[in-house]
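User: Run a structure prediction on this.
Assistant: Running it now.
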Amino acid sequence: MNATEGTRPESAEIERWWPHLSIDAKHRLLAELDGPIDVETAAEIESISGGGAPERLSPGEQRFVLTQMEAVD
């Protein structure tokens, strides 16, 4: 088996896919921000980004998501 077999594609940066994620997928992520990303949401991320979906959000990605919810003047 070569080094790339059985590995996941590289995850796309959250800034690329978060703005285009459906409301339902955003709600699923927000419900368990530090948990694993569900299969349906991962498929949506991959469809939007053309890359892989992370297994879970990193602490930096979690902070990014929370900043996207804050009201901006």
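Confidence is low (pLDDT under 50) at residues 1-6.
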